[in-house]
């Protein structure tokens, strides 16, 4: 069995390999008096950031992306939206050594960041890849300094903050363009020594991007690209914010990146809502066995992994539903954003399915396939109302989809502790949903195999567009 120190070393080496690879971003254009709010429609594609130039000009970029194909696809999307001269650029891999930072937030699709509150942690940078936005502060001179600062940052309300090593040139500095905060800010004292070499680092954007001409409302298009400004020129000095605006992150978050004033207050969905299909103890189910496995890993289940949905499994699931922190977060998000979206007692309105959908939306990180989503929506009614088994080819495709998605999600979860938390919530919700769907199809006279195939295909239909990036 691999020892814990060896496992940690392997994960560190994996992280170093990821950050050493070449990254890509996309230049949107150069604009006068531009603000982040002018590009709200683009935030579903990635993190939008700006670099100030001379004469109140701002060069706007979006990124980062792990492959040239992804950057090219975003470029084509931008051109369709009217940004005719959008162009992809590579950010060469570097041999620089990783240095300590502290991650304080992670944002999924269409979840705004509360910059005023986040800036209390110190100077901010964005670690963005393929639509997933992570907010970090630093750098720190040594791991010991970062560990000391971590206690202070957690004391500010960032309970799930943690230390991680990153290569500075892969990060995007946060400045006035991103935050919209232009007033003078008062620094706070946190243990955050910054090496001179890191304080003066360049931004991740290319230094010699081509000229561009765009038409934006209330903006003057330009056709020249002034020299790049240093990252330090765009980063405001952090300021204290009211305690009530402190975002709760990771396991404790309701919406980790939104100010409390804008988060709807909703009663978390109950596990035992009337009208749900009753799950019988027999037959043995693969989905129930997987549910038992994750519940055991999280300390809620101590029985045998036998695939029988008996009283022990029921009790363990109910305990996880109310006590597992990632599930609490997504129960509230699903209740606030998705409850009532599906008519009557349709499967999409079931508590476990609604939570799985909420997690999948975050996992999509703005990269969900809209065309796939529309196609699946058209097929959904017939599939969920099916009274006959699937044809063999359709059942095989659903099984392949499920295997591929979970394999890639498992690999993705090793890259970040917050990824692992998201995956835990999805596993519980997914396998409970699959078990419930099997029970629904069994009530229509399906045998165990036909019920499982239909349940898997239904989950592919419900979640496939959001999880398309993991295929």
How many alpha or pi helices?
14
Mean pLDDT: 75
The beta-strand count equals: 9
Structure class: alpha+beta
Domains (count)? 2
- SSE pattern, N- to C-terminal: HEEEHEEHEEHEEHHHHHHHHHH
First-last Cα distance = 30 Å
Task: Give the strand order, joined by hyphens, for the main sheet.
Answer: 8-5-7-6-9
Specify Rg, calculated over alpha carbons: 24 Å
Strand content: 5-15%
Provide a concise account of the structure shown.
With 471 residues, this protein is of the alpha+beta class. The protein has helices spanning 4-20, 68-80, 115-118, 143-155, 176-179, 196-199, 286-297, 311-323, 325-337, 351-364, 370-384, 392-413, 417-443, 448-463; strands at 23-32, 47-52, 57-65, 87-91, 99-107, 124-129, 132-137, 162-166, 172-173.
List the helices and strands and how they pair.
Layout: H1 4-20, E1 23-32, E2 47-52, E3 57-65, H2 68-80, E4 87-91, E5 99-107, H3 115-118, E6 124-129, E7 132-137, H4 143-155, E8 162-166, E9 172-173, H5 176-179, H6 196-199, H7 286-297, H8 311-323, H9 325-337, H10 351-364, H11 370-384, H12 392-413, H13 417-443, H14 448-463
Antiparallel strand pairs: 1-3, 1-4, 2-3, 5-7, 5-8, 6-7, 6-9
Task: Provide the descriptors you would attach to this structure in a database record.
471 residues; alpha+beta; 2 domains; 14 helices; 9 strands; 40% helix; SPOR domain-containing protein
């Amino acid at each position: 069995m691999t020892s814990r120190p060896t496992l940690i070393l392997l994960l560190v080496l994996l992280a170093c390999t990821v950050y050493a690879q070449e990254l890509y971003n996309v230049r949107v254009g150069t604009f006068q008096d531009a603000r982040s709010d002018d590009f709200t429609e683009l935030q579903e594609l990635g993190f939008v950031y700006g670099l100030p130039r001379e004469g109140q000009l701002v060069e706007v970029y979006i990124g980062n992306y792990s492959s040239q194909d992804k950057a090219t696809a975003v470029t084509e999307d931008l051109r369709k939206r009217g940004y005719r001269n959008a162009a992809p650029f590579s950010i060469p891999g570097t041999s620089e050594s990783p240095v300590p930072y502290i991650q304080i937030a992670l944002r999924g699709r269409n979840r705004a960041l509360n910059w005023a509150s986040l800036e209390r942690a110190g100077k901010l940078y964005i670690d963005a890849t393929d639509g997933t936005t992570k907010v970090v502060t630093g750098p720190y001179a040594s791991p010991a300094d970062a560990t000391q600062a971590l206690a202070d940052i957690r004391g500010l309300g960032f309970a799930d903050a943690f230390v991680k090593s990153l290569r500075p040139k892969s990060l995007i500095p946060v400045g006035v363009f991103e935050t919209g905060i232009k007033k003078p800010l008062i620094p706070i004292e946190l243990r955050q020594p910054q090496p001179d070499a890191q304080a003066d680092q360049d931004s991740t954007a290319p230094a010699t991007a081509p000229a561009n001409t765009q038409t934006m409302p209330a903006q003057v298009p330009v056709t020249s690209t002034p020299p790049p400004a240093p990252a330090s020129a765009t980063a405001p000095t952090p300021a204290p914010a009211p305690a009530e605006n402190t975002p709760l992150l990771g396991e404790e978050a309701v919406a980790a990146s939104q100010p409390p004033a804008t988060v709807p207050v909703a009663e978390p969905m109950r596990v035992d809502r009337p009208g749900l299909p009753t799950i019988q103890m027999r037959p043995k189910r693969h989905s129930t066995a997987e549910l038992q496995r994750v519940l055991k890993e999280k300390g809620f289940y101590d029985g045998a992994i036998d695939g029988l949905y008996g009283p022990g499994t029921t009790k363990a699931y109910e305990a996880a539903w109310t006590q597992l922190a990632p599930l609490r977060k997504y129960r509230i998000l699903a209740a606030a954003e998705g409850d009532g979206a599906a008519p009557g007692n349709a499967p999409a309105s079931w508590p476990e399915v609604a939570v799985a959908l909420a997690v999948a939306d975050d996992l999509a990180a703005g990269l969900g396939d809209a065309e796939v989503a529309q196609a699946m929506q058209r097929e959904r009614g017939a599939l969920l109302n099916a009274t006959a088994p699937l044809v063999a080819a359709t059942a095989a495709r659903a099984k392949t989809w499920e295997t591929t998605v979970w394999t890639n999600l498992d690999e993705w979860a090793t890259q970040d502790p917050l990824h692992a938390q998201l995956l835990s919530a999805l596993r519980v919700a997914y396998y409970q949903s699959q078990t419930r769907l099997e029970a629904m199809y069994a009530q229509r006279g399906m045998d165990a195999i036909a019920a499982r195939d239909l349940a898997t295909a239904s989950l592919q239909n419900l979640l496939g567009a959001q999880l398309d990036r993991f295929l």
